[in-house]
Amino acid sequence: MTIAHILARAVNGDRISMADAVKLYESNDIDALGQAADAIMKKWHRDPITTFVIGRNVNYTNFCDTYCSFCAFYRPPGHKDGYVLDNELIYKKIAETVAVGGTEILMQGGTNPNLKLDYYTNLLTGIKERFPSIWMHSFSPAEIWKIAEVMNMTVEDVLRALHEAGLDSMPGGGAEILTEETRLRVSRLKVTADEWLEAMKATKKVGMFGTATMVIGFGESFEERALHLQRIRDAQDETGCFTAFISWLLQPENTGLKRLKKLSSEDYLKNVAISRIFLDNIANFQSSWVTMGPEIGKKSLHFGCNDFGSTMMEENVVSAANTTHKVNTNLTLQLIREAGKVPAQRNTKYETLRVFDGDTKAEKDFVMQN
């Protein structure tokens, strides 16, 4: 079957197979992939609107006993450069976010074996008492599994306790590539692919949702990438647990994988497009300007992405790998418009809060506040 035939079927609404996905990865016709992904995105989102959320990353601890070879952020338990942020400092960071119209806190850290469940529940309760409107999109499957291990609890019970304390949804960090072949090579101690999926499915059982992620550039095969997408699609078919999909490239600098050649922006755009074509059951695709930079982030809006992600007031994990791109609200609006789209602020549930439709005075006032 030709690439053109596979793309035509996908645009027509037919579900493509893993074998089809491998053929798309083997193709160098990035323009055709982008056009098909863009056409599929427009079936989901008919208006030329690109959304974004005003949020902050809070990395509450860098102590971690998982020791992923691709991470430059973590410090082993007991290391002199390790930390656990004081609760008052976390409250201060959230207050700063709320003050500029922020709605989302993405709080993630290492798998810290010294933090028990009550650390998390007390922190979440304290946050919600002070900031009842802030959405806590926080903790990854690996962190949840670590709490479960420390407390001898099930993942579902941990998530239920966290949700009752104030956790609203869970980001999909740590998926990387959902095959044991790659995971055993680059993150042997991390949760397995099945465990990551189990945690994401459990979010739905306790009344929350999550996001799906993918990182390429570990030397994985095209077949492994296709299997990753298949597992995400199957989990979504089963539970509907994902509101969005986000992919990015491995940033190998300053990590144990610095020997690997960093993939190109074309590799990123191709992966975004193929993911949008394959994942026919996830509505929202988020650009990864944090790793790719604003210009490629802008270009991804024509390769299947309908969302520009978070303004990300703070970011430490990717920055530790010597990849730092900053985008404020003003630049976000500019980049979205340069892509020929209308910018709109959203919340974590992808509900539109405000459309920036050309009211220059109101927009100027908003930007000055942010």
UniProtKB/TrEMBL annotation:
SMART domains: Elp3 (SM00729)
Note on how the cofactor is bound: Binds 1 [4Fe-4S] cluster. The cluster is coordinated with 3 cysteines and an exchangeable S-adenosyl-L-methionine.
Binding, (3R)-3-methyl-D-ornithine: 140, 288, 310
Signal sequence, start to end: none
Domain Radical SAM core: residue ranges: 50-283
Catalytic activity from the UniProt record: dehypoxanthine futalosine + S-adenosyl-L-methionine = cyclic dehypoxanthinylfutalosinate + 5'-deoxyadenosine + L-methionine + H(+)
Gene field: mqnC
Keyword annotations: 4Fe-4S, Iron, Iron-sulfur, Menaquinone biosynthesis, Metal-binding, Oxidoreductase, S-adenosyl-L-methionine
Protein name, entry field: Cyclic dehypoxanthine futalosine synthase
Alphabetized InterPro entries for the sequence: Aldolase_TIM, CofH/MnqC-like_C, Cyclic_DHFL_synthase_mqnC, Elp3/MiaA/NifB-like_rSAM, F420, FO_synthase_su2, rSAM, rSAM_sf
